[in-house]
Amino acid sequence: MNTSLNRLASAKSPYLLQHRDNPVHWFEWSPDAFAQARERDVPIFLSIGYAACHWCHVMAHESFEDESTARLINENFVSIKVDREERPDIDSIYMEATTALTGHGGWPMSVFLTPDGRPFYAGTYFPPTARGGMTSFKDLLTAITQTWRERRAEVEQAAARISAALSDSSPRANSGGVATSALVEIDLLGNPNYANLARGAVEKLSRQFDENSAGFGGAPKFPPSMVLDFLLLHHKNTSNERALEMVRQTCEAMARGGIYDQLGGGFARYSVDANWVVPHFEKMLYDNALLLGLYARLHAQTGNQLALRVCQETADFLLRDMTTAQGGFVASFDADSEGVEGLYYAWNLKQLVEALGQEDGQWAAELLSVTKHGTFEHGLSTLQLLVDPADQPRWRVIKDKLSEARDTRIAPARDDKVIAAWNGMAIASLVTAYQVTSKVEYLEAAKRSATLLRDLHLSDTGLLKRVSLDGEVGSPDGVLEDYALVALAFFALADVEGDDAAESSNWRKLGNQLVAHALKHFVAEQSKEKLTFYDTSDYSERLFKRPQDLSDNATPSGSAAMARALLYSTDSPELARLALAGGFGLMATAPRFAGSWLTALEDTRATACSITGCT
Hints:
five-stranded mixed β-sheet; five-stranded antiparallel β-sheet; 9% strand
């Protein structure tokens, strides 16, 4: 068996391809990797990350490109590199192990496994030399190698304990033991039990709301897209003004802060501070897809003009910068350019003056909060637009000039892979943007992406593949979120008013097919009380645990998305109520992580009330 090659050159993941020239003898996740670990009787080093991950790049440069570190790895481990966006199932179960062992998670994720895949040690980023209480990566490799050779029984016992604990645990973010009748006997036609659940969620969210800077919690602060969608829909259903105010304040704070690209449109991943000033600069499709839909709905519901502007600018960003030659939408842009995070996006006064001249440069600096000492690093500032300029024509000219100047910089790298679930969200949001703006190009872009998913990712039997790159479909199977979010995208296209009836019927048929496939292959439990799902199918690769995560993370819970898809399916809408039951406890106890569940509940209630006339 060949033990001297880096095997990533033929990978379909841009993240894996970033590591194809490392001196580390990387495998993709494959039976061959585990077979070699068994044959050599060595542990597995599993490294999980994604293309836009800043600290993944840092650890790669510091350790995986270093010959001496690579030698330690190659001599004592079989090394596997995984793109978490391609294989969210692998990421999910090993992140659960990492969090259980360390109390926190993140990427790059560094996990050490027995040759049969059971974790026994885990962490995230490790520096090349010990600092700040962190062990150096070389010292860690040496210690694990010594422990494996000299104290194997302890390693095996630890792996057995960890795997057993994780395999026996309840679904992540499950009801937490909540089983009162107020939760499990909710009348979706609007009786007091339902009202209590929704009102209780709003009250909890209100207490966690940042009254100074909007959003929820402190730093780092993530765009709470799914929670805001729930609050907006709750206001629509109930006229709860507090719910709407939290949405309006947060949407305005994000749109005016540094987390939003004031020149090119689109949002960065999160703000490292509590005030939305300094982002972590990577741009992800899922964030922008979710926020596009949110701002479109906020404008449709309230007439908010800032929301309309952000809706259009974000949609234009997707069409201009995130579209592939095949019509899909790419996964992400890096945070870094030229090895420096934020360099592409940040400015100082000198740069503004060079691009605009002295007078306009000074005017732009004041308008965009570019300060003498900088709001970011190295005297640079992120661009904020805290107030709309009174002189709009002047701002449009300056914006165009700054965009042209920025285009001469080296842009962040783009991860061109197409992910089914994320494209599903983009499709549905572009349909909403079209309905709000009547811009046909948004609808056409949505249809092109949907056509790519239909023709390349989806088989005649209903089998959905998760990723493609440059028009070639990858091997990873679709997970629950792929089936649910693509089905919702197809249903959104089917419901476009005035569209071709036959085309609409075909999109609906495909959505129903995806829902039917999920009901056949993803169900965990079905009874008269509830319907629950696994995140992976019954034909997918068997890991040491079958993942089942009910909470929203960066993207909506697959189970919650499937509850919504069931509602819109013409074949099985009656199952939506049973699917919602799986999230009742989470909605009641942790609404910040249940926004998609609460939105599904509001959707279901609104649908029922449109028929029965309840209030």
